[in-house]
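ok, trying the design again with the full structure, not the truncated one.
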């Protein structure tokens, strides 16, 4: 029997305490990874390249805030339906949210692609020797916009089912790889293009894992493909 068909008690106090612990652990390990990685990255890349990498981290983090509230609305609606035991429309609701997220993310990717040259050459004070490399990096970064926004929606699904264990099972390695990934690239290349490509790959990995977890929690969504 799927989790969506069970009569789950999603508001009990012990569950709240356990979820709080999961969230704390989900923040601690990526923070430790950052404290370990950042000094090494600054030394290896230099101030200019590391500044661009910091900008990439910041922009990628903000992508999930530009989902027009789709993830938050989905979490609210799913929680209400689960509370009422109204499970029939949940798969359609999930697919609608994911398609909207993909559309919004694609528009964001297009906007970033169209402004990449302007950002690299005019907006940010990028040293002339890095400008072309940074422009290419922004094109690669644009790919992650729909990925990050879809990940936000998938997390919303897991949140509505109170599966913070699964959320943080993803958050710990992905959050850590956000900082450790560039470190792993350094023995082979110090080019921003390669580092950012790895970061996009980390987001793709997150998307794949989140999809697998959501299918495990709500297997009915596969019936609507």
């Amino acid at each position: 029997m799927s989790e969506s068909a069970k009569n789950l008690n999603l508001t009990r106090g012990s569950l709240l305490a356990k979820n709080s612990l999961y969230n704390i652990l989900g923040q601690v390990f990526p923070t430790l990874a950052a404290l370990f990685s950042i000094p090494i990255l600054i030394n290896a890349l230099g101030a200019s390249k590391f500044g661009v990498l910091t900008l990439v981290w910041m922009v990628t983090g903000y992508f999930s805030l530009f989902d027009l509230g789709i993830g938050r609305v989905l979490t609210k609606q799913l929680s209400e339906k689960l509370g009422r035991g109204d499970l029939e429309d949940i798969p359609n609701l999930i697919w609608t949210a994911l398609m909207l997220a993909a559309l919004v993310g694609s528009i964001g990717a297009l906007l970033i692609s169209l402004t990449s040259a302007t950002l690299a050459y005019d907006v940010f004070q990028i040293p002339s020797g890095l400008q072309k490399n940074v422009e290419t990096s922004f094109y690669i970064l644009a790919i992650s916009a729909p990925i990050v926004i879809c990940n936000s929606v998938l997390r919303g699904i897991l949140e509505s089912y109170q599966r913070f264990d699964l959320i943080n099972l993803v958050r710990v390695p992905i959050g850590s790889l956000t900082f450790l990934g560039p470190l792993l690239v350094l023995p082979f290349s110090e080019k921003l293009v390669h580092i950012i490509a790895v970061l996009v790959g980390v987001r793709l990995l997150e998307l794949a894992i989140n999809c697998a977890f959501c299918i495990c929690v709500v297997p009915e969504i596969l019936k609507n493909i």
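Keeping the full-length input from now on. The longest helix spans residues 13-63.
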